[in-house]
UniProtKB/TrEMBL annotation:
Protein name: Chitosanase
Start-end of Basic and acidic residues biased regions: 1-10
InterPro entries assigned: Glyco_hydro_46 (IPR000400), Lysozyme-like_dom_sf (IPR023346)
A GO MF label: chitosanase activity
One biological process term in Gene Ontology: carbohydrate metabolic process
Comp. bias regions, Polar residues: 11-37
Region named Disordered: 1-37
Length: 268
């Protein structure tokens, strides 16, 4: 489940928005034990992505053909909720970024490009395509049978989610792998680091003199509380994400060197 599951009645910035300036009112000293930026190695990046894949699909590798339909889209005007398609390796949504993925696939002349091209301008508009069997089957078939779709998805999830999360991580002075995991997961699940959750605690980001571990712990705590009490039962079920992060903090697994249990999947 992805960005449109979250509470869109709250203030939400775009995934590529720059860091929001903060003034530190925290009393703690900046964390002096942070890892260097090079701590986010290709192996660590892969582990981070595998954890989020497991959250989203129950598989560390993700499910490129995975298509589900959730009653989780809230219309920003009418505030009514409706069903939408959620698709792919780390699950992107019909009213979120699915159109961009399918545009890229059609542009790459995938095996199912001809079937999907007529739908491009309908993705993200009402009515939902969740009940269009031809559209849904073409997505499933492309994910199962076409290597071009896999390549497009890998590029897409990196460009649309991982890179903006990484930019936010660096701009705001974070350095630890667990911090990157928490931030990336918020980008995949919510589209960004949610501003209304940030306003619920006073710790500044490290770039503004705050303590990195304290900030991450506070953000996970408020996100956990929000998810657990959300009006949408689908969203309430996703607290396994924040439980996982809290477990890593308890185990001092800030460098992600230890195995992680994510949604029942062990990521070594």
């Amino acid at each position: 489940m992805l960005e449109t599951i979250e509470d869109h009645s709250a203030e939400v910035s775009s995934p590529t928005e720059n860091a929001i300036p903060e003034t530190s009112t925290a009393t703690s000293e900046p964390d002096s034990s942070v890892l260097p930026q090079t701590s986010i190695t290709p192996a660590i990046k892969n582990k981070i992505q595998q954890v989020v894949n497991a959250f989203e699909t129950g598989s560390a590798q993700g499910n490129y053909s995975g298509l589900v339909k959730y009653d989780d889209y809230t219309d920003p005007v009418t505030k009514t909720r409706s069903v939408q398609v959620t698709y792919g390796r780390s699950q992107t949504t019909e009213f979120g970024n699915l159109k961009a993925l399918i545009q890229a696939y059609v542009g790459a002349n995938g095996l199912y490009a001809a079937q999907l091209k007529p739908y491009v301008n309908r993705i993200g508009t009402k009515p939902s395509l969740a009940n269009d069997a031809t559209f849904c089957q073409a997505l499933i078939d492309a994910g199962k049978k076409d290597p071009i779709m896999r390549t497009c998805q890998d590029t897409f999830f990196d460009k649309v989610y991982y890179q903006p999360a990484g930019n936010w991580f660096v701009t705001n002075g974070f350095t630890m792998p667990l911090s990157m995991l928490v931030i990336y997961d918020s980008y995949v699940h919510s589209g960004c680091i949610l501003p209304f959750l940030r306003r619920k605690f006073v710790t500044a980001v490290p770039a503004a003199g705050g303590n990195e571990k304290e900030w991450i712990n506070n953000y996970v705590e408020v996100r956990q509380s929000w998810l657990a009490s959300h009006s949408n039962p689908v969203l309430r079920k996703t607290i396994y994400r924040t439980h996982c992060f809290q477990e890593q903090m308890m185990r001092s697994n800030w460098d992600l060197s230890k195995p992680i249990s994510a949604n029942g999947i062990t990521i070594a």
